[in-house]
Amino acid sequence: MSDFTTLGVDKWLVDSLRAMAIRKPTPIQAACIEPILNGQDCIGGSRTGSGKTVAFGVPILQTWARDPFGIFAVVLTPTRELALQIAEQFTALGAPQGLKICLLIGGVDMRTQALQLATRPHIVIATPGRMADHIRSSGEDTICGLRRVKMVVLDEADRMLSETFADDLAECLGVLPPSGTGGRQTLLFTATMTDEVKLLKEMETREGRRKVFVCEVDTDKAAIPPTLKQKFMLINSYAKEAYLHTLLSTPGNEKKSTIIFTNRTDTANLLLHILKALEHRVTALHSSLPQSERISSLERFRASYARILVATDVASRGLDIPAVELVINFDVPRDPDDYIHRVGRTARAGKAGEAITIMGERDVALIESIEARTGKKLEKYEDEPGVSLEGRVVRETLQLVSEKKRMAKLDIDEGRNENGKRTRRLQEKAMGIKKRK
Questions:
Q1: Basic and acidic residues composition bias: which ranges (predicted)?
Q2: Considering only CA atoms, which of 263, 222, 192, 190 is closest in space to residue 347?
Q3: Model-level pTM?
């Protein structure tokens, strides 16, 4: 008998899980599925890659299938990529019951989304910004189904409850039924159990509230996988790109699946052009890319067509990229929790992994705050046997990379100018049409 069956999961869902090669529940799934099925609100904390989507997806789908109507549940998540990934898992789990999903994310035509939302899909999966846009502009006939939702999920709750999403999240929750007995059931899941998330435990003390089930599995300091080697490199900032290229080209790293994290989209775009010019198999993922390119980049990296993914923190949370062997922080993250999420992309499911943070003299305080947050000192990067990284940079790569960087900046500027010219031509054409009328 399946362990999922002992949690009260219906046979059709057990079969769907088995078809996805999921046979035994992870600790967060074993802890949360039964209380959610019993109608409790839930705050679930578990490190990235632990199966949180299944932990809330299974009880939502089981409850929906027993009494299907209109829009049953809304799942709110901070990024488009996470929304797409959650939609994929819900689609696979709910296929035997004819589940209909509506995905509300940026980069997609709003009119198409509004038409789909108006048909009362079973599950809405959305980013707060795009859902708020629909609430403000799509009309009551389109959004009225949201007012009868039975279950609401905040995925990556620590980030969702930050100031970044405050206004949009308030707009979204304002149109949904209130919490409490007879109202919606609320589920919060996170890899980082912040004080803001923990304070929500107090919800159950309010009159008319459901009991809140709180589960923490491998959160906070344990969010750093035990099989992860954490290292730092202290270098001169003017040579960062040369050190990065040399590091990627060492015998020990030249075949590794690698994510390089930057703090800014402009930096990610520049590195993409430089590394392409240096003949690395590389792609990029950041918020300035069109949605189609973001999806394509992620798929290329997952399929190993690209060995290297240059990304901002868009890629640091929740994405299922199981084959990453090396994470490089080209920029030191300003928030220690962002560091935890970044390095959590590797050393998943008990596998070994390595994270190398490139730092300058001004980054010492940031590294110290990361070490205080994780409870572990970063080790100094040591050269591979027979390889002097600094020697190779000085003798072989500094001049080459500097030239490629100069060319990359020219290419980026030319691209911007061409886009600007194209925009002006379209504007002039539109003005000409108006004049003829």
A1: 411-428
A2: 222
A3: 0.77
